[in-house]
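Dear support,

Our group has been running a series of protein-ligand predictions, and this particular one with iron/sulfur cluster is the one our PI (initials K.S.) wants archived with full inputs and outputs. We had some confusion internally about which version of the output was final, so please treat the block below as the authoritative record. The input we submitted was:
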Amino acid sequence: MNEDDSSQIYSYLSGAGYEPALKEEDAEIFILVTCSVREKPENKALSKLGELNLLKAENPNIIIGVCGCMAQRLGDKLKVGRPYLNFVVGTEQISSIPSIINSIEDGQKYKSRLSLSEKTSDLHLPGRTNKAQVGLREFIPIMYGCNNFCSYCVVPYTRGRERSRETQDILDEIKYVADRGCIEVTLLGQNVNSYGQTLQEPKTFAYLLSKACEIEGIERIRFTTSHPKDLSDELIDTMAQNDKICKHLHLAVQSGDDEILRLMNRKYKIERIYSLVEKLRKAMPKISITTDLIVGFPGEDEKAFENTLKMVRDIEFDSAFMFSFNPIPNTPAAKMEGQRLMKDKNKSLERLIELQNSITCRKNKDAEGEVKKVLAEGFSTKGEGELTGYTDGLKIVNFEGDKSLIGKIIDVKLTKGSLYGFQGELVK
Ligand code: SF4
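Confirmed final output from the archive:
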């Protein structure tokens, strides 16, 4: 979502005549797109603001703004003790950034705009149709906000209630990027599986996916994130039947313990995860399934944590994003009893990471010798001569190849698997 926010800001500002600075020291306007999902990204944003303050001391004409979830969460509180910060703008006022900058350039003071709307007509869409730069892979938001109120999460408060974009608007945008060279799109939403429920004429996510598959030029379609409670059989069938839909599912499970899932307000039991994974693997035997896991949630004792380890061992996810629980102010989980000490949470996290990493490593080693389709995206960090790209299961592969292959989907044999991905070689 932050990538999309940034690309919208780019579009709005390009439309207003601004140009991107090639080097940070040449920039006259800085806009931080922030994230509130944990404490760490918020701290990073604050530390970046400190750095910008130093730049502004040298050049007082610099304009500094903050947007994204942290801006929405804290509003004008962010300005306290930061007189150098010119504006704070909420998640739904991105389109007003050029006019805010204009008024600041005219010497006016600016008051934060943070209102959240529930109306689809207010979605910040106009900038979307003139994306200034189109890459091989593009993110396309299909919905905004969330209605799920998981007890640890700030999104429903910072991004508002769930609103889906009109199907035709999304398809037009996919066609727009396809006509400009994009090959792979990732459809984005906090819970893509409930796409379409807020439309005047409700549509399912599976319907949107099958329509997107008809667009010429797009060869791969991904989506994220899938909430297990809303993952339908229709979606599994649609994935299995369409070659363009990547055989990868990011299924955010969060915990392997029913009581913790209840406290998290996730609205499913662990049995559902086992049955979904079984259905997915039956329909698509080679599917890659990844997940998110939180350890050290309030009330998680050794038994509950062991249940998460058991689920990870049983299911064998291809990889996982794993975090210790980090209370976000004003969310229900931050006020729950049974908060665990950071050192204990981190110990559990280490055990979980060790287990999942061993599974990821073994699965990647087992895949050695397989031939995969890889979208060559550019040169690897090694530079010219070695290309890099992802398989449809979202595994990174580096392999020898030249510039002429960039932008093509090619067959690559996986020669060496490790925790982070693969070395491979071109299949002639
Ligand atoms: S479904 Fe995702 S975005 Fe929505 S409240 Fe839960 S964790 Fe947050």
